[in-house]
Specification:
Elements lengths: L5 H15 L6 H11 L7 H12 L6 H11 L27 H14 L2 H15 L1 E3 L5 E3 L1 H8 L5 H9 L7 H33 L1 H8 L14 H27 L8 H8 L20 E7 L5 H13 L7 E6 L3 E3 L10 H11 L11 H11 L8 E6 L11 H10 L2 E6 L13 H5 L3 E4 L3 H11 L3
Parallel strand pairs: 3-4, 3-6, 6-7, 7-8
Antiparallel strand pairs: 1-2, 4-5
Length: about 475
Amino acid sequence: MAVEGGLLGREIAFFDALREAGVPVALSEVIDATRAMGVVDLLDREALRQAFAATAVKRPHHRPTFDRLFDLWWPAVTGEPTPVDAEGTPAEGDGDGEVDRDALRDALRELLLTGDEDAMRRFAREAVATLGRSDGAGGRQNWFSYRVLRGLSPETLVSSLLDALLAGQQRGGLAEKVARQTVQERIRQFQEMVEAEVRRRLAEDRGVEQISRTAVQPLSEQVDFLRASRDDMAELRRQVFPLARRLATRLTARRRLGRSGKLDFRRTVRASLGTGGVPLVTHHKPHKPHKPELTVLCDVSGSVAGFAHFTLMLSYALREQFTKVRAFAFIDTCDEVTRFFTPGGDVADALARMSAEADLVWFDGHSDYGHSIEEFAKRYPDAVGPRTSLLILGDARNNYRATGVPALKKLVAQARHAYWLNPEPAAYWGSGDSAVTQYGEVIEMVECRNAVQLEDFVQKLLPG
């Protein structure tokens, strides 16, 4: 687990690992962290953790990633732990190399009952050393958290723990609910402690740099829309409005500090009279930044629905940055869904109403981009004009149906700007029933696989 460069080298490598995991860390923040190391007690690990977090973590949802990597790069212990049981005395086997699992389960039960986190963490280290080891090829040690958790089965202790915590109180009431939540939270903490100890062991055996790359899950904003789980999408939806606020603040500041307006010839000439007719200083008319109209046309079928929903939510969270926002959804036909998104309304309710009430199916409920684009152009001729930024969302997988390219070409010609955001990796474009090649000839196709790429695109869509 050696890292070149001593303490400062480890610090720099740690911040590099944060960047690789997707946590943005600027050079100035690394310098601030280095200065903090000269102030805090380096033997106080938690003080060092808080100092680094204060300098590097800017968003709450980045903190779990920071903590996991900090525990890898700055472990609380190294090497073999001292074997202890719940009372702090040496833990013993049965004399034949076999582990007394019943004794370990009894010790775990007492720890879960008392809730002593420090003792539970020491027990987790010993449990991994006792139950989590597996001999690999070439004499190499492997470590597995599932072996520990399977051997101790902490979930099976819930009933006896509830009996002990309730101590004769009536079941089914508030007391049981609180006790059950307490037990489940302590079991979850123990499981996390075991997993953290396994990561520490692996980092010592294989190198902290290697384990850092696999120890953390991608941040929610880096998860591909098409691969996002239900929990990932729920977290992304929670980030919509903080993301919109950041973008709106950034875009407003960029407009305010943007270039000047057109040259004010009269004021420039008048000012030049004081310098012999030489215009040393030019004067400009006030810059009036353009606020475009936005029309969003999105495929809400199948796996792309999560991407479309997230982008719709972001568009409406940013509606103050546009003169007007209109939204249209389609599967194999098109319907305007602007009516579901009222100012001050709940966006999640709006999405639910859109799915239930909008007229999006014409024939068989499979994606038909050609028919949907043609219906959009025919039924809503006023939706795209010279001030409109047209945004089409979808993977362009058209089930080998007609593409409607002529209608799309007319829409693009009418719009001020037109973009197609595609959540599929560019490497898959044009394969199978993908019509990206045909559409890409008439509209700019933009890869938009995650929230980071979408944020970058929104800043492009709203120039200062």
